[in-house]
Amino acid sequence: MRMARTLVVVGIAFEILAGGAGAQTTNRVVTIHSLNAYDILYVLSGGGLNAMALMQDDGVALIDPLPAGWGSATLDAISTVSDQPVTTIVNIRASEEFLRANLEFPDATTIVAHRNLAERVEAMGIFVGASAALAPKTVVTDQMTLFDGPDRMDLHYFGPGRTDGDLVVVFPEKQVAYLGDLLPSKAAPVIDRLRGGSGVRLPATLAAVIAQIIGIRTVVPGREPPTVGAIGTERPGAIMPMTVTMSWKDLEEYADFARDFVTAARQAATTGGAPSEAATALQLPERYEAYAMETAAAAVSAIQAELNGQ
Question: Distance from CA of residue 8 to its chain's centroid?
Answer without folding.
Answer: 26
